[in-house]
Specification:
- The structure is a homotetramer.
- Chain A has ten helices and 15 strands.
- Chain A has about 350 residues and is of the alpha/beta class.
- Chain A folds into two domains: about 10-125 and about 300-355, 3-Layer(aba) Sandwich (Rossmann fold); about 130-290, 2-Layer Sandwich (Dihydrodipicolinate Reductase, domain 2), CATH 3.30.360.10.
- A nine-stranded mixed beta sheet of chain A has the order 14-13-12-11-7-10-9-8-15.
- In chain A, strand 12 (about 245-250) and strand 13 (about 255-265) form a beta hairpin.
- Chain A is globular and about 70 Å long.
- Chains in contact: A-B, A-C, A-D, B-C, B-D, C-D.
- Chains A and B meet through strand 7, strand 8, strand 9, strand 10 and strand 11 of A and strand 7, strand 8, strand 9, strand 10 and strand 11 of B.
- Chains A, B, C, D: InterPro entries: Gfo/Idh/MocA-like_OxRdtase_N (IPR000683), Gfo/Idh/MocA_Oxidoreductases (IPR051450), GFO_IDH_MocA-like_dom (IPR055170), NAD(P)-bd_dom_sf (IPR036291).
- Chains A, B, C, D: One of its GO terms (molecular function) is nucleotide binding.
- Chains A, B, C, D: It holds the Pfam family GFO_IDH_MocA.
- Chains A, B, C, D: It comes from Microlunatus elymi.
């Protein structure tokens, strides 16, 4: 990367849980100049600004008025994302938004449209798409190492913070959904979504959630998210026609394993219409080697802020652009509908993916 | 146990995968005299008979005609259970049936009714209900150690044999469902059942399956069964209002763990109608000790055949009686319906549990 | 294998802990005809004979007098091995002996000599050398996959039975030592042996033991054996100049892992005499992939009795012949000496390995 | 803690690997005012000073001349500790030293004596003694939960940096030894020490090391340290007469487990002189519950710098004072001697523990 390029100026809005991580990475980036921290809670903003050498702003309006910036990064509650983003886009700023992009597809769509109309970058901080493991998984799928994707099972459970505003689907599933959008050959494009949730504590929102996505060609993706689990599990299995992959994010010694193990079904022309007994005879099992690729070590958020800068400079959509974020929102909304309809399978409206083209 | 009691005579029908386990345990039991092995495949029957000191019969009719027996144990394909059981009950024999009891609720109901009318024992071989771990789990729930059951998550995945006749739900989920029936305070009595399955290999039946059960009082039980997983997992989490339990059946050093860890929600009268922010403030987290009870070691099938004998002698329903088996079948059938209706939640007809009273 | 070859006749001496395993495998073998079980405890002998279709003998003398046998298998306490084996060899029988071969090198040497003089097979039941994992490890080392062996660390700890006659070294370390003898390019030929033991319960013998072996070329092998550990561990690490191998015998899903990971030291001529700082600069780290080879599944004891038969028929030393067993005894004796001399390193007398040549 | 107490002023000497951790914790501490960073490498010092708001000094002499400080913290190579510490003590400063305290017992003794004579605090940064796990282990031993300590086995292996100046014993074993000194009822007071090391890479120093300590009353402590292991293990087992404890530092979900499991030996007066067979009959096994205490979460280094301040203010020895550090050095030196004498057991001179009394 050429160092003589001017650094881009960015402000971080929201100094709560996630904002400090963004601020730290912008501050450490060769691409970025962290100009300001903006938070209604002045003390919180001040503390973060002190640690990162940035100025403090109390409101987004003041921020946009007073600071010469290229971009803002939004790390506020999801229901406030759209308003802040729209203000920033109107002011001609590029926008990075913490996941989920917005709290409705409709709001997200407005954001995407506004960015598109002004030729600005709108990017979601789908952090996992910048981890060494997920990048490797995408590569393995692209190279055909797994064959066709047959099923996906993702478990993300923990004794987590019960959020005041969102349920466990909106809090945790964006991780799984954005990963699927990134690694699946066709992105996140389920034919249908079913959801089941439980609120056994009476907290007013689902704390335990299950999400089923019917993918094209009969494949099924399933996601289990849970705030109440005493054990922490973060595992993703991708079953392929050639090999099966396990990503165990809590096993630093072997995060990604590829199993040359599986069930094969020989389907031959002359077998059609045959009895199940003979069909069974055509099933065979592979019990081959296991292989765990070495993964490079780097901080995903560092890569993420670099991608934000690169997409601005190169005037191209970011890896996790608004379109990707909309596809995640569309699934979350379909899940919400399924929850209220006895887990009935819901179709997913294509959230106009063609929109995300930077002029 | 009094040794002078006459041994009961039993024959095992079916010498395939499971029959040999039953035969071995009957042969080793002080309660039972294994009289005969019956299988259409004479060679298979002969081999098993030789190992267990039993005679051989080619058909159930011949068996019932020629042998003085008190009971038969059926370990044939599920679709044949009902006919064999009905013949044996008609002949006045007590009957033990490998899970699932039958391939439809209707067939199971006929079996239960026939046994009831003749005052005979009909028992399902729900083997897991005789394991040290499950017996301990039931005890912990009964003693209130877990508090109210808030959610259940069961995973039973493996590179398993794709069965020629049944899908993964009928093959594996009876384990999970019979365990739930045994340990839950009210047995297996879900308000609704949703199911999602995938057959990514085109084998003609689901190889990957997810089952959601809405339990009374807002609790949710979820079961993941899978024949295609490269890794083997058998884990059951039972989240309670006081503590949470994890049964990891593949960790012989710590099968059952009880976590004094969880989320508490203080619901106070004056909080009603309050803002979510104040509600959130009432959530607290316990991060207490973990405790793994020592488990005795014994062979579950030995306990199971002993229970069969005891229920016959004491003229009382067995631990895993026909009623328990019917409740499992009712859920499997509801799941089947849900599969064909886009995962829509299905209600479960109470399968006449009052029937199972031995005259 | 040619089935028309006459089956060899064998008797098992000792029906305690290990004898039944040998008897079961001889009985199931196409190579062997299990003729008799011999044990002073008639009831124990009878029970085993009944299960395996063999006759019963009360003493070795009667056995050798009355039975037409080709070979005996000895599974009695170690201190009795030599007498029984010498009697059998004198009677012209081939001999298989449970580990350890004898309770002294001297006794073992007599056995080896007697077998050699009469052209009979003397073989030790070093069972682990017939497991899929150990066979694979030997193959990997032979093929140069690991490079030169730099260090070996073996841990075999458990809550085990405190033996009445032998300490933890003689009980457990023969496993580790026989494995090393089998897989190391030069066999078990340490330059020196140090041992440290503890008897914290005052049982009269070491219950916790550590064994250090200095191997040729500066390599070190270390063995930890322990009867008192609450956790069960069976792990062997073999560090090589190219790759490092981990055998975790209690992880059925990934028993053998090969790590392309390690420390490299560039030693260049012009570096000699250089400062440690520059030396350090020449150290580099490889963080490559991990690979877990698929292992076949078979019963090691089945392979072991097949090897016994093959070595008799082919008149060649068995894989785990008397010479291998003597090398194990020589290390155990050196360890015993080290224990009584403040862990001082002891040299190991070569136990005449050239002896074991079948005429 | 009273906030009106004057903050103590400290400088950190050494801005390499460990210094930044110390600096960060001093900077964040309410007890300390981090005044300066001192390193020969000005750039390194500057970078650390910038991050922590401290000034920069190029040499210790300049530091002591120009800065008003109460204490210094030394994080330089071990061979330089003594000179820097002596200079600081002469200048009347309290001293904290990264482990190991010095590179010889003799040097350490001089430091302890100098501190004592001037009534200054000399403290070793034995970080592990401030971790929640080790504090809990000490508490469990003190409360008698484990009974008498029968054996200790510690494994600390990793693919670690081969150090240019010290071998693996001096690099890693101070962790294990300082933990033992802290948790054992009588501190680290072995009767003898044996060591075995290997340098399979020809790096000029041991990269694989085993250390055996004979503790009073027949107990044995063993330490395995290794820079070349492809897998990372940090496990400590403490076998007690009542229970056994396992600390698995890499299992965040269950770091400390207490097993009510073990071997009991009934030693009765009338048993003395009895045969081993009857002795064996008196051995019994407990297979009780496992218990994993919840551990608080805090940063150990924060506690450590707080203890440094408290010991200065209260004019009392620190938890990990010079005496503790000397006991660690004495074992390391005995190990060095054992290495050069064929692993022969070496006695450990008591390193004048009575010295460490603050006037």
């Amino acid at each position: 990367m050429l160092r003589h390029v001017r650094k881009l100026k960015v402000a971080v809005v929201g100094a709560g849980y996630w904002g400090p991580n963004l601020a730290r990475n912008f501050a450490a980036s060769p691409d970025w100049d962290l100009v300001a921290i903006c938070d209604r809670d002045d003390e919180r903003a001040r503390a973060l600004a002190d640690r990162t050498g940035a100025a403090v702003e109390h409101s987004v309006d003041e921020l946009l008025d007073r600071r010469q910036i290229d971009a803002i990064a939004i790390a506020t509650p999801a229901r406030t994302h759209a308003d802040i983003a729209m203000a920033a886009l109107s002011a001609g700023k590029h926008v990075l938004v913490e996941k989920p992009l917005a709290d409705t597809v409709e709001a997200g769509r407005r954001m995407v449209r506004a960015a598109q109309q002004r030729g600005l970058i709108l990017m979601a901080d789908h952090t996992y798409c910048y981890t060494p493991a997920v990048v490797k998984i995408k590569e393995l799928i692209e190279n055909g190492e797994l064959g066709d994707v047959l099923y996906v099972d993702s478990v993300r459970i923990n004794l987590g913070l019960v959020q005041p505003d969102v349920d466990v689907f909106w809090d945790l599933a964006p991780h799984d959904l954005s990963i699927l959008d990134f690694v699946l050959p066709d992105g996140l494009a389920p034919d249908g979504v079913t959801a089941q949730g439980a609120d056994p504590l009476g907290s007013g929102r689902s704390c335990v959630g299950y999400l089923g996505l019917t993918l094209p060609a009969g494949a099924l993706a399933h996601v289990h998210v849970n705030w109440l689990s005493p054990t922490k599990i973060r595992q993703l299995v991708i079953g392929g026609s050639r090999r099966t992959l396990l990503w165990d994010d809590l096993n630093p010694q072997q995060r990604v394993s590829v199993f040359d193990r599986g069930v094969d079904l020989q389907r031959q022309a002359d077998m059609l219409g045959d009895s199940s007994r003979r069909k069974a005879a055509q099933i065979s099992y592979r019990l081959g080697d296991t292989w765990a690729p070495a993964l490079p070590e780097y901080e995903p958020l560092g890569r993420m802020v670099a991608e934000f800068a690169a997409s601005i400079r190169e005037q191209r959509p970011a890896r996790t652009d608004g379109g990707a974020a909309l596809r995640v929102l569309a699934v979350l909304e379909a899940a919400q509908r399924s929850l209220t309809q006895g887990s009935r399978c819901q179709s997913v409206t294509r959230p106009e993916p063609s929109l995300e083209v930077v002029g």
